[in-house]
Each structure stands twice: as C-alpha cells, then as structure tokens.
Amino acid sequence: MAGSKTPTSSSKRPVISQNDIYVAQCKLCMKFREIDAQEEFEEILHKIKQEPFDCSKKDNCRCDDPADIEYDSSRTWVKYKPNIPKTPKGFKRISVLRDDYSKLDSYYITPTGKQLRSRNEIASYLKDHPQSNGVSALDFDFSSPKVMPDTIPEFIVKQKDSANKKVKIAKDEV
After folding, report:
1. For residue 91, what is the domain's CATH number?
2. Which positions of the chain have pLDDT values less than 70?
C-alpha cells in the first residue's frame, strides 16, 4: 500500500490525501493495483488477512494485465498494518508525513471538522457528540504506517546522515 507526499496549503507538512495513490498487492501475481478511493482501500485493508486481495477483486482486471504501478523510489511508499478498523462513517482519516520522513502521524477529522490526534480525544468528542451513536473509540486506529526506507528521497537520507555525524562528533569531543 502506498502514498506519495502532497503539500497542503495551510502547512508545509506533507499529507497523504485524496490526490495520492492507494494500492494493494495481488496475492497471486504480486503486482500492485491502484485502488480508486480511500474508503475502498480501507475496506480492503480492514479484511486483508481474512480475504487477501487479488486482481479479480478489481473490475476489469486480471493477473495477466500489466501492473498499475511499479514499486520504485519515484515516490515515497508506506505500508499499513493489516486489519485496521475502517474509518467510521462521517469521519475522515488523514496521515501526515513528518519532515524527516521517519513516520506518518494519523489523525481523524470529525463530522464537525475538528482534528483529533488520540483515542482520548476521540472518546471525549464522542461523549460530547452523542449523535455519533454506535461509534466507539475502539473504532479508530492511530498506528503509523511504515515508511519504506528505500523510497525516502536521497536528500532526506543525506540530511539524516549529516545530522548523525554532527551528533557523533559532538559526543566524541566531550
């Protein structure tokens, strides 16, 4: 599963958004297939262990067809944990890529437009908004997708290496 970074207008922090690409890997041919919508991607991810994805689950797609996208370093790829809960109706899950590409932070946008960053904030919101009937704090997952290291841009890797050398030199001087 992948996404590439997209800058937002309100912040310089990249956000995985609707403009990014959601993909699933076929269990049979191992090719990556583009998934049209975040909701469809979350549905696949939610039940991936019970129902592994294969090309036949995508309309007009077979294993004989060329891959929709190739895994390479032309974009930053991330891998989500399997079987995470689907985002409850009315809420939206967003993932924000940290500046150093170390990980993505997951947030939820509520039906009222408020951004929530933890299960405690979710529980408080649900308590204050009883109209979200049938939704529990357990329906939200804040785990971070793993950034695939071989797809991190080279300039970021060089920045990290440079920062690590400075720290090591400083420790040696003490």
Report:
1. 3.30.890.10
2. 1-19, 160-174
Q: The tokens of 32 are what?
A: 């990556």
Per residue in 42-84, pLDDT (tens digit) is 999 999 999 999 999 999 999 999 999 999 999 999 999 999 9
- pTM, full prediction: 0.76
Distance from C-alpha of 137 to C-alpha of 150, rounded to nearest angstrom: 34
Long-range contacts from 123-126, C-beta under 8 angstroms, 24+ separation: none
Could you give the number of structural domains in the chain? Answer: 1
Q: Is residue 7 part of a domain?
A: no
Are 118 and 107 in contact, with CB atoms under 8 Å apart?
no
**110, part of any domain:** yes
Closest CA to 16 of 116, 98, 111: 98
Residue 113 domain flag: yes
Q: How far apart are CA 114 and CA 23, in angstroms?
A: 28
